[in-house]
Amino acid sequence: xxxxxxxxxxxxxxxxxxxxxxxxxECTIASATPGTASxxxxxxxADMGFQDAHDDLKDFDVxxxxxxxxxxxLAEDHEAEPMxxxxxxxDLQKTDPSKERTLLGVCTGSLFLAQAGVLQGLSxxxxxxxxxxxxxxxxxxxxxxxxEQTDVMEERYVVNNARFELGENMDENPFVLSKRPDAxxxxxxxxxxxxxxxxxxxxxxxxxxxxxxxxMRVITSGGVSSGLDAALYLVAALVSHExxxxxxxxxxxxxxxxxxxxxxxx
Length: 266
Fold this sequence. Notes:
Elements: H1 4-12, E1 35-37, E2 43-45, H2 50-55, E3 62-65, H3 71-74, H4 83-95, E4 102-105, H5 110-116, E5 123-124, H6 131-144, E6 151-152, E7 157-160, H7 194-199, H8 205-210, E8 217-221, H9 226-238, H10 241-250, E9 259-260
Helix pairs in contact: 1-9, 4-5, 5-6, 9-10
């Protein structure tokens, strides 16, 4: 479900909820082997290997890193995959901040981001059983890098470098959950990146390039079902809030919103 949950959300998302042909996302699965067995025994067919993923990396707007039971063992070598792919994707954003890119770590997949060193100076979360592991990995990455620390938060999902105005009243933003879930309110705020188009305003590329990782949107989620919440956030940000609500309705899933810790004033 680390993979299939977000995949179901993105595959269901439509630009026009009345047009089933208006698919919002085209998904590609990369793996070290042609087929990967999940912890539940499901074999998932890969569309490409890691080398092809590196070669075609410029063609992708979103990189999703799922977790699993053996993440800590796989993450021991910070120069192995998928850490190399994560670093390459982050470097691509830093060298070309004109494009909007998103990196999403699902559940324990966030530990790969920590080991890759891309969470320095950001906030993040993971499965509650692995908070301590994540803090250790982030501190080790900080020592290898520029000593910037990571704020590990106990949230459903955490978003850095959002693509919308947070607004003066955070409680009225549809993507921001205050520290108390019962403080969440219905929103009439601007919704996601399509709001720029609606308002004919432009994001400052200069400002984006000055942010962490060239302004790449970095999302980490908690336990496996939190990956659904984070994927719905992604649909809302890249397509529309209404599109995300429609996906949640179709899947009969109650979307629980997370925390946005940084935004761009456009």
